[in-house]
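ugh ok fine here u go
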Amino acid sequence: MSADSSRIRFVLVRTSHPGNIGAAARAIRTMGFNRLSLVAPQRFPHADAVAMAAGAVEELDNAVVTPTLVTAIADCTLVLGCTARKRVVQLEELSPREAAARALAASAHGPVAIVFGNERTGLENDELMSCHAAVHIPSVEDFSSLNLAQAVQLLAYELRLAVLAQVPAKTPDEDREPPATIDQLEHFFGHLAQMLDDIDFHKGRSPMTIMKRLRRLFLRTGLEQREVRILRGIFDDAQRMARLARERS
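structure:
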């Protein structure tokens, strides 16, 4: 299966200025991309978005609007969150060029999302927790603020370079399973959290801290769908054994 740039979507989260949505649509269109997703935009559709799109109206017309980030990326097998500063959520950090190479390679296996936060606050910690890695644009420290559309343009440009430079893909391993989607992973994490409660794993430790670390671990490993099924089977058995132990006590 070869890389497929049409599977790469640009996701704007809680955008406050409709003009930035239009400018972002123009930015991705100039680099050959057309998939735009909007998560809870404050004002859309809007005339300012159309004006700033400068002709990229098809990208606006086809933009998918969702209420939450998890909904927007549910089917994605790789999610990269663009952030301007360090956050509580510790993620692998990629440069735009590294992110573009990884996104294009991952597009061979399923949909990919490049996520951008609100103009003022960026991505919140809970939104970054759904990302496999963070993308950081190495701007100067004393003036690091980029306009949202500028950041989108920069990532789209790096992706365009990656598309132009790509070589024929190697024959994939026939035994390789597709990567788990975000929707599958969110159900997996919910099952994991419940299992840890059922076996009384925490014993006074913070469940939230442990789950943050486990999320980071499993997102970093790039779980396949088969691996998710195996692990959830283990969780089921652990829960069954814990239930039997309680019944016998």
